Amino acid sequence: MKLFRIALLASLVTTAGVATAATQGTQGPTSSGTSDVSVTKENTALITGIDDIAFGTLGFLTAPEVLTSSMCVYAANAGAYNITVSSLNGGFVMNAAVGTGTLAYTVRWADRTETLAAVTENVALTTLTGSATELDCGADTAGGVANSNAILEVSIDDAAYNAAPTGVYSDTLTLLITPE
Question: Which DSSP category does 69 fall into?
């Protein structure tokens, strides 16, 4: 009896949430059968419209240099997502192409509310909202850019920039979108 209960429990656990099989009709004046219909919607995300942040050639700065890039974030679960930003060089630092110079920068992110929040490298910003109905953001606009609902902001401090050795500095950011 104990073995039967274990087998029954195992059977129930492995079939929980699974649609039952179709049933066939029987011959008679009428006949009916059933067919279960099911689908599983994946909790997916997509980020598009990403552009490089190119400050170009700058001289002496008297204020922080700030650039933004608007993009589109889709998340299947009512548009809810998290973003984690990582820096190839680590710590949001640009390395000089020649020599050992470094130049730190800061990153901020805004979802469709357009409220910029400071980003800490490899720490998720949570409870953000993107598009849940259109992969290309449709009529959404962020930062005055059509078909976008998110903003990436990168800022170089003027004092740190002015103190850095001359040269070309670069880094690569990875923007990881995770649906909630």
Answer: E
pLDDT of residue 18: 57
Question: Which tokens sit at 109?
Answer: 């992110």
170: closest CA among 117, 92, 96, 105? Answer: 96
DSSP secondary structure of 103-170: EE-EEEEE-TT---EE--TT--EEEEE-BSS-TT-TT-EETTEET--EEEEEEE-HHHHHHSPSS-EE
Q: Is pTM, for the whole model, over 0.90? A: no
- What residue ranges define each of the domains in the chain, with the CATH number in brackets? 45-50+62-179 (2.60.40.2040)
Q: Which of 70, 153, 77, 174 is nearest to 112 (CA)?
A: 70
Q: How far apart are alpha carbons 131 and 111 in whole angstroms?
A: 10
Check pLDDT > 70 for residue 34.
Answer: yes
pLDDT at 19: 56
User: Comparing C-alpha atoms, which of 59, 60, 176 is closest to residue 126?
Assistant: 176
Question: Are the C-beta atoms of 65 and 140 separated by less than 8 Å?
Answer: no
Q: What angle do CA 104, 94, 119 make, to 5 degrees?
A: 55
**pLDDT recorded at residue 99:** 92
Task: Please name the amino acid found at residue 55.
Answer: F
- Report the alpha-carbon distance of residue 107 to residue 151 in Å, rounded: 10
